[in-house]
Automatic annotation (TrEMBL):
Alphabetical keyword list: Magnesium, Metal-binding
Residue ranges of every copy of the Mandelate racemase/muconate lactonizing enzyme C-terminal domain listed in the record: 147-244
PROSITE patterns, alphabetized: MR_MLE_2
Organism of provenance: Dongia sedimenti
CDD domains: MR_like
Cofactor: Mg(2+)
Name the UniProt record assigns to this protein: Mandelate racemase/muconate lactonizing enzyme family protein
Family matches, as SMART domains: MR_MLE
Length: 369
């Protein structure tokens, strides 16, 4: 083992390549803090996290003033101990998005460093359960997109070998959502999955109503139908519909997932590696879901989730939303509509550090140690 001697970080503000709208918001920016951790033997680990437009500077300050100083002198391979110590160090601000997102940047960097020291890819170091995962696309299913374009995008995804498309729902009246989804179903046929995403838009009664209206279309799941902290509402919905209920991108603690699973409030877990606080808790949630015979279909961050999904046996899908194209030298590998994890040592992300430095937000960079 070797002690941590330096922590560096900066933030890149990525602009989405396409307009992204859902039932409650529009995405205009993707703040991406990137952390590099150095140990005394010269090994380097790179990690990252993200926001959808706000909170990035707060994450950077938490890392600079609290987490980074606490890492200096620690044994870099003691990832579990470090994660728990940092969580306790910020116990006054947990459970919360800013703390979890900052933890994720540190934790993913430590896992990258560990894998590189062992000369192994993350998907094998973390489990090695699957060789590739089917993809579904979200980029052509945003709420503002007209029905004809939804159909065209779904057909294009099917032609590429993708297994499904996600369509955002939450138009003013349920009939509008139904019409859009029926058009897609008629075009792609019964063997192509249609996922739906509500982005926490509905009340319980409206979610139950919409689920009833969507049932004949045979959708793969209804995602985030209610606010994430309304667990009992999700129980009521799950008991009232045969459509699988998917939650997870807005949960920030493994214990929250435990409660959802124990109460039967969901049937698909969408744990997000950044929002849960890193790889260390992500794996715990994935294995917890496995014990409940529930699949994992993580939210976003496909470049990292492909390796994590390959590590566990109960991962079912990887969500296709390109994020890091301008910051990497090669994209995520895709074969016949499936995501294939990289065999390169580390997280499997081919960072372009020159491009990262060029795109960094002015004044965001710092070094501790």
């Amino acid at each position: 083992m070797a002690k941590i001697v330096r922590v560096e970080a900066l933030m890149v503000d990525l602009k989405p390549k396409v307009k992204r709208t859902d039932a409650i918001q529009s995405f205009v920016s993707q703040e991406t803090p990137i952390v590099r951790i150095y140990d005394a033997d010269g090994a380097i680990g790179t990690g990252y996290t993200y926001t959808i437009g706000t909170g990035g500077p707060s994450i950077m300050k938490l890392i600079e003033l609290t987490f980074a100083p606490a890492l200096i002198g620690r044994e870099a391979l003691e990832i579990e101990r470090i994660w728990r110590d940092l969580l306790f160090l910020t116990h006054a601000t947990t459970v919360g998005a800013i703390t979890s997102l900052a933890l994720a940047a540190i934790d993913t960097a430590l896992w990258d460093l560990k894998c590189r020291r062992q000369n192994e890819p993350l998907h094998r170091m973390a489990g090695g359960a699957q060789a590739r995962l089917p993809l579904y696309t979200t980029e052509g299913g945003w709420l503002h997109i007209e029905t004809g374009a939804l159909v065209d995008d779904a057909l294009a995804a099917k032609a590429k070998g993708f297994g499904g498309s996600k369509i955002k729902i939450g138009r003013p009246h349920v009939s509008e959502d139904v019409a859009r989804l029926e058009a897609v179903r008629a075009a792609v046929g019964p063997g192509f999955e249609i996922m739906t995403d509500c982005n926490q838009r509905f009340t319980v009664d409206e979610a139950i109503r919409r689920a009833r209206c969507l049932t004949p279309i045979d959708i793969a799941w209804i995602e985030e139908p209610l606010t994430a902290d309304d667990m009992m509402g999700h129980v009521r919905l799950s008991q009232s519909t045969t459509i699988p209920v998917a939650v997870g991108e807005s949960l920030y603690s493994a214990l929250h997932f435990r409660e959802y699973l124990q109460q039967g409030a969901c049937s698909i877990v969408q744990v997000d590696v950044a929002r849960i606080g890193g790889i260390t808790p992500w794996l715990k949630v994935a294995h917890l879901a496995e014990c409940f015979n529930v699949p994992v279909c993580p939210h976003f961050l496909m470049e990292l989730h492909v390796s994590l999904c390959a590590a566990v046996p109960n991962a079912r899908w990887v969500e296709y939303i390109p994020q890091l194209d301008t910051l990497t030298t090669e994209p995520m590998r895709i074969e016949d509509g499936h995501a294939v994890p990289s065999d390169a040592p580390g997280l499997g992300i081919a960072w372009d550090f020159k491009a990262i430095e060029q795109q960094a937000v002015h004044g965001s960079a710092f070094s501790v140690g």
